[in-house]
Write a structure and sequence with these properties.
The complex is a heterodimer of chains A (about 250) and B (about 775).
Chain A lengths: L2 E3 L4 H10 L4 E4 L3 H8 L7 E4 L14 E2 L11 H9 L3 H4 L4 H6 L8 H6 L3 E6 L2 E6 H4 E2 L1 E2 L6 E6 L7 E6 L10 E7 L4 E6 L6 E5 L4 H7 L10 H13 L8
Parallel strand pairs in A: 1-3, 2-3
Antiparallel strand pairs in A: 4-9, 5-6, 5-9, 7-8, 10-11, 11-12, 12-13
Chain B lengths: L16 H5 L15 E7 L5 E7 L1 H4 L4 E6 L6 E2 L6 E2 L5 E2 L5 E7 L2 H10 L1 E6 L6 H4 L30 E7 L2 H7 L2 E9 L11 E6 L5 E5 L4 H12 L6 E5 L15 H10 L5 E4 L2 H6 L6 E10 L5 E13 L6 H9 L9 E10 L13 H19 L3 H8 L20 H12 L6 E3 L2 E12 L8 E8 L5 E5 L8 H13 L6 E3 L3 E2 L14 H28 L6 E4 L2 E4 L6 E3 H4 L1 E4 L5 E5 L1 E7 L20 E11 L6 E11 L6 H20 L29 E7 L16 H4 L1 H13 L10 H5 L6
Parallel strand pairs in B: 1-14, 12-13, 16-17, 21-22, 31-32
Antiparallel strand pairs in B: 1-7, 2-6, 2-8, 3-7, 4-5, 9-17, 10-15, 11-12, 11-14, 13-23, 15-16, 18-19, 19-30, 20-21, 20-29, 24-25, 25-26, 27-28, 30-31
Helix pairs in contact in B: 10-18, 13-14, 16-18
The chains are: A alpha+beta (about 250), B alpha+beta (about 775).
Chain lengths: ~250, ~775
């Protein structure tokens, strides 16, 4: 039988983790876990629901808790817009910002604005909560040690000029063929892509040199589309120019 | 708004609306009985492999497991028109997802856990993944025993090939037509196999009781087919088989024929007749149960200098996947209609059903016509371009008319729908079809196509209706028609109310079908339900009226010819205030002294298709086509030629349906068809890797149309009466899908200035000029 834990404090979580002898999983919005469970793909029998831990649902000027739902993200505009591009409205009522960053799906689109915003993340690690820049921990996916748990995100809500485009092969409710986010930063530009390769790709550029930016990313060919087509779409977006004007 | 007093032609509320929106409607998967056992299946991960060994020893030790069975236990083959499908794989798997073993256990979880412990050793073979590969002379035979399978006579398997059916149409002199032609074109198209994606997944239960009765409950469109085929393949007297069908949550052809019922019966039998539930998950439903066919087709057209069609040469190779079963007849239907709704005096068509190692297929809305019309209408547009004719003009000029003959040389009579009228309605909406507009870097373009569809069914296709009465004079309709969401039950109520001249609240309709008590009915398929069961229901209502007139004549002492009916009464024409209510005579008339005469009224009505024949195996000549629903589609698209991203802005359909019984429901059927056609054309279809494994067997990756993605729809109906249909109506459930791929293709092709021929039309195909199609 499966066992569901619902810790209310980090002390409680610590003692639950200490008592674990088998593999367990963290459960938040549940959109992936429930779907995988139905298909028999979840082997872990111990589930730990993290939504009730302190701060997980926090929405303050300093912190967005890891279990805040995508539909609740409103500021800055680029974060809200990227969030609204993911899945459909009903699903976004359950998809969490932490789940999108840490889940198994390769797209992790919400990582793009967070990186562009120089976000920091809080991680529950070894009984304490530490705070580190997201980009120090994010390389292809978020690097977490066993037992570590993302608890929140911290970033500046100031609006910045950005361009966002999400291409799919069907309607808007589909995984991205290419999600494109370009942001004006203090030193230059951030360009982030999801769906373009097998992992999110991103880089910072001093100048808006289409050729240079285009060549910094590697496109993949898969069921959704060819690398050539992705490259063409990226070029079309880059040719629209740098995100210099405030939206 | 005009108030329509007659029940016919009125927007009557659906009889199933309230229970569906409240979630009270009961479907097969809801129907548990105590002691019911559950099942899970080991599926093949390979597209083509020999089964070397199946080890169930570990699995059978798990708690709750009652039995584990493999295909070898069931030597029977199943199938509707061709019995080529084993109950579960025996010795060889022919497609990804095929069932190789079943676990029967107390709970679904236990059955699933046991499935994970079944070990199967395979010897993998190279799968055949396209029709063209399957037709190579040296292709491996997917069914080496093709000639030994049971088939109906209309199906003609080709020995030593992967072709379980070849239908030939030979009309006129094709070489002469091409020899004399001023213009010829040749065009090829393709469609991948895919899934119906009915909202309700297939399910069937079976229990065998001590009296030998076999009780099946199933999400089927064809309970009488289930009864008859189980009887034949498992040697059960048909009267001992009771098939119950509650609501069915969408069929689209995918629940016609035999589906999970044979499996449910075999599994129940293997555990001594205990109740067993077989229920597909969404993933199972997509790849272990059949989807829709694919197609590779080439059409050549010959025309004179004015664009009049002289000849059509068609090569329709339908991809049926690993089993042909029902699908053999789809390749036949595509041939019978193979010119589209045009007068073509010289025709040469070879239409094949072809085996490949992809998941197998069955009937799908449009039954071979959606595929064939795509091929024909793409060629028609290329011909119009070549001659410099307007796409409307060329279709108007060649439109089939009463007095013309179909590809199988059957003569079209007065019931033939008005194609020219339909084309005019679509053109009226769209204006100049050839107009191409530039809008902020995007291109707006339009198209117009024609379509037709005839049912492809047995020559003795039948329906029946029984009308019984209640003490208040209201009646109950019992037919063999399944409510699959199409609204036929509501239409039946309207037809009977019209005939009896009562309000619709005096007519009740039985939703479920039970083969032991419902009158026999071929199947709820081929857009035939309202036409055929409707005919039977009208006849039953007339029969009931005759009986009520008898009673009234006796009681009122006035000859029948001087009686009339209306408002739930039978009355004297001369003195309308003198009469009897239906309530007074429905269950026998009771005199004031208690004496009673006549007894209850039971109306009976029958329908059987008339004058149908098979077709000649060499020329196709015959009369298999009962009625044709004819119409036209128009599409308007807005394409960004750089990204290939496009929007279908408008979809228009004009169709000659003979008589509109319920305008809202009719419109809903047509819009539903068009929406499904858009999804089929631009989103759907299975994707697979080089090993033949399907990679999008879920609705995350196999997208279907959503509410928010719909274009503006316009639907127009013409009413050229179908003389053998009740109140002149003919079928309208399917034809609205059949022209959609062609219409979308033709609009996109016009926008981009090059032919778009290979479904699905993804943005990438449109953006990449050099895309390898």
């Amino acid at each position: 039988m499966n066992k569901l834990f619902r810790p209310q404090t980090y002390e409680e979580l610590t003692s639950i983790l200490e008592s674990q002898t088998e593999k367990y999983l963290y459960y938040s919005g549940g959109t992936e876990v429930m779907s995988d469970y139905r298909q028999g793909k979840i082997k872990e029998k111990q589930w730990i629901d993290i939504k009730h831990l302190p701060g997980m649902m926090e929405q303050s000027p300093e912190t967005i808790g890891a279990c805040v739902f995508l539909n609740q993200l409103t500021q800055p505009a680029m974060l809200a817009e990227v969030a609204q591009g993911i899945a459909d409205h009903t699903i976004r009522n359950h998809l969490t910002i932490g789940g999108n960053v840490c889940g198994k799906l390769p797209f992790r689109e919400i990582v793009l604005p967070l990186l562009a915003l120089d976000a920091e993340i809080s991680i529950f690690s070894d009984g304490e909560i530490i705070r580190v820049p997201l980009k120090e921990r994010f390389d292809k996916f978020l690097k977490l040690q066993p037992g570590e748990l993302v608890t929140g995100f911290h970033f500046d809500r100031t609006e910045r000029p950005y361009h966002y485009k999400r291409h799919t092969i069907t309607g808007s409710i589909d995984y991205p063929l290419m999600t494109y986010l370009a942001v004006r930063t203090e030193q230059g530009y951030f360009v982030g892509l999801s769906g373009y390769g097998s992992i999110p790709q991103f880089a910072w550029f001093e100048n808006w040199d289409v050729e240079e930016i285009l060549n910094s990313f590697k496109a993949v060919s898969n069921d959704r589309g060819s690398a050539d087509y992705r490259k063409k779409l990226l070029e079309i977006e880059l040719e629209k120019g740098a995100p210099n004007e405030a939206v | 708004m005009e108030v329509n007093q007659s029940p016919l032609g009125r927007n009557e509320r659906r009889v199933d609306a309230d229970v569906k929106v409240t979630g009270q409607a009961v479907f097969t998967g809801d129907m548990y009985v105590s002691g019911m056992l559950h099942t899970a299946f080991k599926r093949s991960p390979h597209a083509f492999a020999k089964i070397v060994r199946i080890d169930t020893s570990e699995a059978s030790k798990l708690p709750g497991v009652k039995r584990i069975v493999t295909g070898e236990e069931f030597p029977t083959n199943l199938g509707l028109y061709m019995g080529d499908k084993p109950v579960m794989a025996r010795g060889v798997v022919r497609h990804y997802g095929e069932h190789v073993a079943a676990v029967i256990a107390d709970t679904k979880k236990q059955a699933e856990a046991a499935v994970n412990l079944i070990k199967v050793e395979y010897e993998i073979k190279k799968p055949i993944l396209s029709v063209s590969d399957a037709l190579q002379a040296d292709a491996e035979l997917i069914h080496p025993d093709i000639m030994s399978y049971a088939t109906i006579p209309a199906i003609i398997p080709q020995e030593g090939t992967n072709v379980p059916n070849l239908t030939k149409i030979r009309k006129g002199d094709i070489d002469k037509a091409f020899g004399e032609a001023a213009h010829t074109v040749k065009s090829s198209v393709s469609i991948p196999i895919g899934d119906h994606v009915a909202m309700e997944r297939r399910a069937a239960t079976c229990r065998i009781t001590a009296d030998g009765d076999v009780h099946i409950t199933s999400s089927t469109q064809a309970p009488f087919v289930v009864k008859s085929l189980l009887g034949i393949f498992f040697n059960i007297p048909p009267g001992k088989i009771i098939v119950d069908t509650p609501f069915v949550g969408g069929g689209f052809g995918g629940k016609a024929g035999l589906q999970l019922e044979g499996l449910a019966y075999a599994l129940s039998k293997s555990v001594g007749g205990r109740p067993v539930m077989v229920e597909n998950s969404r993933e199972d439903d997509m790849v272990t149960s059949p989807g829709h066919m694919g197609l590779e087709a080439t059409v050549e057209l010959a025309a004179d200098s004015q664009g009049k069609l002289l000849g059509l040469r068609g090569e329709y190779n339908y991809n049926s996947g690993a089993y042909a079963d029902y699908a053999v007849n789809i390749s036949r239907a595509g041939a019978i209609a193979g010119t589209g709704p045009y007068r073509v005096d010289n025709v040469h068509i070879d239409s094949r059903c072809v085996y490949t190692n992809l998941p197998f297929s069955t009937a799908f809305r449009g039954f071979g016509h959606i595929e064939m019309i795509f091929a024909v209408e793409r060629a028609m547009s290329e011909l119009a371009n070549k001659i410099g004719l307007d796409p409307y003009e060329i279709r108007h000029k060649n439109a089939i008319q009463p007095g013309d003959t179909t590809p199988v040389q059957s003569l079209l009579g007065r019931s033939t729908g008005n194609l020219r009228g339909c084309l005019d309605l679509v053109k009226n909406e769209l204006g100049d079809i050839t107009e191409v507009e530039q809008v902020d870097g995007k291109i707006r373009a339009k198209s117009i196509v024609s379509f037709w569809k005839a049912p492809a069914m047995p020559t003795n296709t039948d329906a029946g209706a029984i009308l019984t009465f209640n003490i208040d004079g209201s009646c109950n309709i019992n037919t063999g028609i399944i409510e699959i969401g199409q609204g036929t039950k509501t239409g039946l109520v309207q037809l009977v109310a019209e005939t009896l001249r009562v309000e619709t609240d005096m007519v009740h309709v039985e939703i479920g079908v039970r083969t032991r008590t419902s009158p026999t009915d071929w199947a709820t398929a081929a857009s035939r339900a309202l036409m055929m069961a409707g005919s039977a229901a009208v006849e039953a209502a007339q029969d009931a009226l005759d009986q009520m007139y008898d009673t009234a004549e006796a009681v009122l002492k006035v000859p029948k010819r001087l009686l009339d009916h209306g408002g739930g009464r039978i009355f004297e024409k001369d003195h309308p205030d003198i009469g009897l209510s239906f309530a007074e005579i429905a269950l026998g008339y009771v005199y004031p002294d208690g004496n009673t005469i006549k007894g209850q009224i039971i109306g009976r009505g029958r329908y059987v298709a008339h004058k149908l024949t098979g077709i000649d195996p060499d020329t196709g000549q015959g009369h298999p086509d009962l009625e044709w629903t004819i119409g036209s589609h128009g599409i308007q698209v807005l394409v960004d030629p750089n990204t290939g991203i496009f929007e279908i802005e408008r979809a228009i359909c004009a169709m000659d349906v003979g008589k509109v019984v319920n305008p809202d429901l009719a419109r809903g059927q047509v819009i539903g068809s068009m929406s499904m056609g858009i999804g089929y054309t631009i989103y759907e279809g299975f994707k697979f890797n080089s090993r033949g494994q399907i990679t999008n067997e879920n609705l995350r990756d196999h997208k279907i149309m959503r509410y928010g993605q719909q274009p503006k729809y316009d639907v127009f109906f013409l009413e050229t009466p179908q003389l053998d249909g009740p109140y002149g109506l003919r079928g309208l459930g399917e034809p609205g899908i059949t022209g959609m791929p062609a219409a979308i293709s033709n609009a996109l092709s016009r926008a981009l200035g090059r032919p778009i021929r290979h479904i699905p039309f993804t943005p990438e195909k449109l953006a990449m000029e050099d895309h390898h199609e």
